Amino acid sequence: MLIDLLRHGATGRDGYLDGRTVHTLSVKGWAQFKSQTADRSWPTIVTSPLLRAREAAEGLAGARNLALRVDDDGADLDFGVWDDPRKTGAPGAVSGLWAAT
Prior knowledge:
alpha+beta
């Protein structure tokens, strides 16, 4: 069995820790997703329930008449109160994790 893992494209929120927040793909993100899936095919698509991943997967599955399964285990990490702040403004020691990147 061959499994391809694809990441959704950009959301236009560089520098943010999105976690489980609800954000859609930016124009650039849609172009990235279309580019990485253009010449590829799968019998089934499994996606995260998060809007930024699910929207892209639903569009691809619908356009190509492919089976689609939403898997709750594919959701991003739940960062709790840290979801959605700029990485540089994350509380405590967490903000230091991005200082070196």
